[in-house]
Amino acid sequence: MLNDIKEVLYSEEQIQAKIQELGETIAKEYEGKNPLVICVLKGAFIFMADLVKRVNIPLEMDFMAVSSYGQSTKSSGVVKIIKDLDVTVEHRDVLIVEDIIDSGLTLSYLIDILKRRNASSVKIVTLFDKPARRTVDLTPDYYGFELPDSFVVGYGLDYAEKYRNLPFIGVLKEEVYSG
Ligand code: PRP
Ligand code: MN
Ligand code: MG
């Protein structure tokens, strides 16, 4: 698995240090608000687990799984809910946790849904951001690292469902996905 990685972009230590900072910032922002923290499966599950351990205030968690209808439809922003939330978001301060924002379509769709369900507020934290790839106007409220437009895997991010369990983020060797 490690042989498939061309270059490590951010190490496990760098990622964990950044998550500590993000957690402290978010804890200050949401103190006394009992936020509903929503993990977007699958990619965000590792970041979610590490982040909530650093947000030392009362909060609740829920999980959502979404999928695009394949490449062509993804560009039209059509996203399918595979697993919906268990709880209602009405009058809740919602924080969406993502691993990465690429085009921004997944999140703009989710934000739209949650606002229509009358959440009091909807904010976004993403560990990684690829602003160069954005096709919709969307800026995260909190983010960890900006990434170049390269094929990255690890720390929740997959290629064909693999590599999510790498504790760092790295660039995948071209031969892995072109061959
Ligand atoms: C990836 C990633 C984000 C989304 C970002 O998820 O985890 O959720 O794509 O892309 P966008 O900004 O262009 O919408 P993916 O659809 O691969 O599902 P996964 O999390 O299960 O891997
Ligand atoms: Mn995802
Ligand atoms: Mg994926």
From TrEMBL:
Keywords for this entry? Cytoplasm, Glycosyltransferase, Magnesium, Metal-binding, Nucleotide-binding, Purine salvage, Transferase
Q: State the reactions this protein catalyses.
A: IMP + diphosphate = hypoxanthine + 5-phospho-alpha-D-ribose 1-diphosphate; GMP + diphosphate = guanine + 5-phospho-alpha-D-ribose 1-diphosphate
Q: What is its EC number?
A: 2.4.2.8
Q: Which GO terms describe its molecular function?
A: glycosyltransferase activity
Where does the Phosphoribosyltransferase domain start and stop, copy by copy?
A: 12-159
Q: Does the keyword Cytoplasm apply?
A: yes
Where do transmembrane segments lie in this chain?
none
The record's subcellular locations are:
Cytoplasm
UniProt signal peptide = none
Q: CDD domains this protein is in?
A: PRTases_typeI
Which InterPro entries does the record match to this protein?
HGPRT, Hxn_phspho_trans, PRTase-like, PRTase_dom
What cofactor requirement does the entry state? Answer: Mg(2+)
> What metabolic or biological pathway is this protein involved in?
Purine metabolism; GMP biosynthesis via salvage pathway; GMP from guanine: step 1/1; Purine metabolism; IMP biosynthesis via salvage pathway; IMP from hypoxanthine: step 1/1
Q: Which SUPFAM superfamilies match?
A: PRTase-like (SSF53271)
Stated role: Purine salvage pathway enzyme that catalyzes the transfer of the ribosyl-5-phosphate group from 5-phospho-alpha-D-ribose 1-diphosphate (PRPP) to the N9 position of the 6-oxopurines hypoxanthine and guanine to form the corresponding ribonucleotides IMP (inosine 5'-monophosphate) and GMP (guanosine 5'-monophosphate), with the release of PPi.
Describe the family membership recorded for this protein in Swiss-Prot or TrEMBL.
Belongs to the purine/pyrimidine phosphoribosyltransferase family.
Name assigned to this protein: Hypoxanthine phosphoribosyltransferase
Q: Which organism is it from?
A: Marinicrinis lubricantis
